[in-house]
Write a structure and sequence with these properties.
heterodimer; A: mainly alpha; two-stranded antiparallel sheet; 5 helices; globular; B: alpha/beta; Hypothetical Protein Ychn, Chain: A; 5-stranded parallel sheet; 7 helices; 5 strands
Amino acid sequence: METTIAGKNIAVNDEGYLTDLNQWSREVAEAIAQEEGIQLTDDHMPVIEYLQEQYKNEVPLSIRKVGKSGVVDIKGFYALFPGGPLKKASRIAGIPKPASCI
Amino acid sequence: MEAEAKTMTETPKKDAKVKKMMLILSKATIDNVYAAFILANGARMEGIEAEIFFTFFGLEAVQKKKLEHLHVATVGNPAMHIPTLLGGLPGMEAFATNMMKKEMEKLDIPPVGEFIEILEASGCKLWACKLAVDMFHLKREDLVDEISDVITVGDFYTRAEGENTHLLFI
């Protein structure tokens, strides 16, 4: 389905995750972040870029992997995206919801 | 069938959402320890508060000297699908445990020590049961630093207060 995010028509699934990463932009990310109760800052961006990179390389994501990425540690990840970091960060990054239990 | 599947995936009403998971770990077999850890970590990943109360043999999972030496039970465990006599042979538990650890590493499941660090970093609270600590003659320094404190059952129940808290005994 389509919805309007940051004044643009964006394709999303029923959980609000982008279905086409090409439609992603910083403005879209900021609007989704706001919905998630997060004020996007420059500190968030390296994490978002890392997640997008992993997705493009088809690497399954987990909290553990993010913690070992060298981009952010686990404590920092939870602090940047409180209340479900992997889910929220993925949604803001415009990639699918990770099906990870770890 | 289709209607049933729909109910399963439907998002529950906001006020019915799980807010806090209070897990009690009483066993030291590796499968039970991982069950507790994965449930607690999974809760934190969903924005749900999580706490683990380590009691009785569960304390082995947070003892510095023991946590990397936990085993899966090869005797009295029908899920192993090997004859009980065979499961009792020397080295059998270590062998089965190593096999399991290899499979878990493939799935990106961290070893026990690293998992405890992840839980602490995620904001999960870890408590040691006072009665069990006394019973096994343990000292605070025998336990990993990530343990917040040694507390009583009553303290743990007090921490469970509030709506939509769930308690789970493993």
